[in-house]
């Protein structure tokens, strides 16, 4: 007998994540976590009568973010494989530095996609179907977790980047997205207190 997760590929992804391979790893897991949060917000939108509140548009934005986050999960694997290839080949090369930079840009994009959904989560908290309020909270929490998880990948890649300007830009961008993680966690806490 098959489970519901098998046709969705969840089990296969988790098996790959648990295996003794470099990819998929934490970056892909962060992207999939963010995609899960976006999917929950989309679901709430789908079960909500819009009546001018903008929840339909929020659902569309969440769907787009979910699609992009799944793409970023794959891009993260490619970027990290490139880092490992140059690490083995020539750690002193400009190609290795370029690969590290690319590997840091992918989690930065993951953070950006998740951070962009703060206002949609807030809108769905206020105007979404009240029977699904905990799905809004869980979606917000998953988005926050994706942001803070992706930040760790930026940190590990940036520390090996030799150019201070690149490291500083990555850190500045990541810090702005971490503020959004705090906002998402606040949404979750507000909902928790209301239950």
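Sequence proposed for the structure above (195 residues):
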């Amino acid at each position: 007998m098959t489970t519901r997760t098998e046709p969705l590929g969840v089990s296969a992804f988790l098996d790959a994540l648990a295996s003794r391979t470099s990819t998929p790893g934490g970056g892909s897991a962060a992207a999939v976590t963010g995609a899960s949060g976006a999917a929950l917000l989309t679901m709430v939108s789908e079960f909500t009568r819009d009546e001018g509140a903008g929840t339909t548009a929020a659902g569309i934005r969440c769907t787009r973010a979910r699609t992009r986050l799944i793409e970023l999960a794959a891009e993260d694997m490619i970027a990290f494989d490139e880092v490992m290839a140059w690490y083995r080949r020539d750690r002193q090369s400009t190609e290795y530095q370029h690969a590290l930079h690319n590997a840091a840009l992918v989690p930065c994009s993951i953070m950006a996609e998740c951070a962009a959904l703060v206002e949609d989560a807030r809108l769905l908290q206020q105007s979404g179907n009240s029977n699904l309020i905990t799905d809004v909270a869980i979606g917000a929490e998953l988005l926050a977790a994706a942001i803070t998880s992706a930040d760790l990948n930026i940190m590990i890649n940036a520390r090996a980047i030799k150019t201070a300007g690149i490291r500083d830009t990555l850190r500045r961008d990541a810090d702005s997205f971490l503020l959004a993680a705090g906002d998402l966690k606040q949404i979750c806490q507000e909902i928790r207190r209301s239950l």
